[in-house]
Automatic annotation (TrEMBL):
Family label: Belongs to the CbbQ/NirQ/NorQ/GpvN family.
Name this protein carries in UniProt: AAA+ ATPase domain-containing protein
Ranges in a coiled coil: none
Origin: domain of life: Bacteria
Keyword set, alphabetical order: ATP-binding, Nucleotide-binding
GO molecular function: ATP binding; ATP hydrolysis activity
Pfam families, A to Z: AAA_5, CbbQ_C
UniProt-listed SUPFAM superfamilies: P-loop containing nucleoside triphosphate hydrolases (SSF52540)
PANTHER family the UniProt entry points to: MAGNESIUM-CHELATASE SUBUNIT CHLD, MOXR FAMILY PROTEIN
Domain AAA+ ATPase: 23-170
Signal peptide location: none
InterPro entries per UniProt: AAA+_ATPase, ATPase_dyneun-rel_AAA, CbbQ/NirQ/NorQ/GpvN, CbbQ_C, ClpA/B, P-loop_NTPase
């Protein structure tokens, strides 16, 4: 369900992101999985009314998936010609749009330096496939997301990190979480939502005590849990959305204890 806006008790998260964007700073959203990084970028894009182009990083990310590729097309005269199809980076630069680079620390370190000129004040790229020099149109902005320490990620290259200003995006809780569940899930049973929010608060305490990992229950998992709770008993919903995803039996047991306490 792609609805609802990014919300947070700590208004500085959104306000500062918007201010950084107005200053044309590159923004690095840092936080655990399902903490609302993509939602924050989408809400920013809607607020400033500038479309967003997304790149999803993985070890397979290469220059083509960032910049585009050459292909053969037939023109109006019926002749075949080689054309370059712009990828997300060049599209965003030409149109003065937002470029969102998701999971930037999943990319191989040798892939991203191609963006160095795009990320510094020059906002300039020499397309290695065509030789064309592209200057970004006004409005062009870069937002990247990173989940440090997550499986498969690498520490972010310092020269790259140096080009960003960091905004920490943590899991929301309390009444704000209750609002997000109401807006983004099918659940409207307020007393059950209240229990889920309290259950989540206990899980956060267990995270601080080191009993469970931080992302054992992300906001995404809580929304899934709330959806499932409309069609099955809440305990089974928790089993399917949180407990069965964990590999560590002690973590599973800790969460089962929190279930006993709250439901
Ligand atoms: N602070 C928040 N405000 C609104 N929605 C949120 C918030 N945090 C998480 N969500 C919701 O939780 C889910 C996961 O968020 P997402 O932005 O995809 O996380 P991330 O990109 O950090 O992995 C989405 O459905 C999103 O709408
Ligand atoms: Mg995301």
């Amino acid at each position: 369900m792609a609805q609802g806006q990014y919300i947070n008790n700590d208004a500085t998260v959104f306000e500062d992101a918007q201010a950084l964007m107005a200053l044309n700073k590159n923004i690095l959203l840092k936080g655990p999985t399902g903490s609302g990084k993509t939602k924050l970028a989408e809400t920013l894009s809607e607020t400033v009314d500038i479309p967003m182009h997304q790149v999803n990083c993985s070890v397979d990310l290469d220059a083509e998936s960032l910049l585009g590729f050459k292909t053969i097309q037939t023109n109006d005269k019926g002749e075949q010609e080689i054309v370059f199809i712009d990828g997300p980076v060049i599209q965003a630069m030409r149109q003065g749009h937002i470029l969102y680079i998701d999971e930037i620390n999943m990319a191989k370190p040798e892939t991203l330096p191609i963006l160095n000129g795009v990320l510094d004040y020059r906002r300039k790229l020499t397309n290695p496939f065509t030789g064309e020099v592209i200057h970004a149109a006004p409005g062009f902005n870069v937002i990247a997301a990173i989940n440090e320490g997550y499986i498969g990620t690498l520490p972010m290259n310092e020269a790259l990190k140096n080009r960003f200003v960091v905004i920490q995006v943590d899991y929301i809780d309390g009444s704000i979480l209750s609002d997000v569940i109401r807006q983004q899930s099918r659940l409207d049973d307020m007393s059950l939502i209240k229990q889920i929010v309290q259950f989540n608060s206990d899980l956060r305490t267990m995270t601080k005590q080191g009993q469970i990992s931080e992302d054992a229950a992300s906001i995404r998992a809580l929304i899934d849990l709330s959806d499932l709770a409309t069609v099955m008993p809440v305990r089974r919903a928790i089993q399917r959305t949180i407990i069965d995803k964990l590999e560590d039996e002690r973590e599973q047991q800790a969460i089962e204890n929190a279930v006993e306490l709250n439901f």
